[in-house]
Amino acid sequence: GKLDPCDLSLEWPKYLSSSINLDRFTRNKADIYKDIDHPYPGLVFRLCAIRETFEETGLLLVKSRSKSNSP
């Protein structure tokens, strides 16, 4: 798989839990980020991996935002 334009959307952070520190996804020394023009390149690659895994396997691991365990 490869990066898709949807992986680069600047809308993704608003869908993350407020308890997630976005600073952990900012650019660091890793060469893998050098060609990605995005404020959170670490997030881009994680989203890409999740999307590609779902596309190839049909398996999507998620958890509900609800604190209730009922369906």
Give your account of this protein's structure:
The protein is mainly α. The chain contains 1 helix and no strands. It has one helix at 41-57. The longest helix is centred in the last third of the chain and has 17 residues, at 41-57. The model has no long low-confidence stretch (mean pLDDT 84).
Structure characteristics:
about 70 residues; mainly alpha; 1 helix; about 0% strand; globular
Question: Could you outline the blueprint of secondary structure elements for this entry?
Answer:
Layout: H1 41-57
Briefly summarize what is shown.
By secondary structure, this protein is mainly α.
Helix count, per DSSP?
Answer: 1
Helix content: 10-25%
Task: Give the helices and strands as they follow along the chain.
Answer: H
Structural class: mainly alpha
Q: Radius of gyration over alpha carbons?
A: 14 Å
Mean pLDDT: 84
Extract low-pLDDT stretches.
none
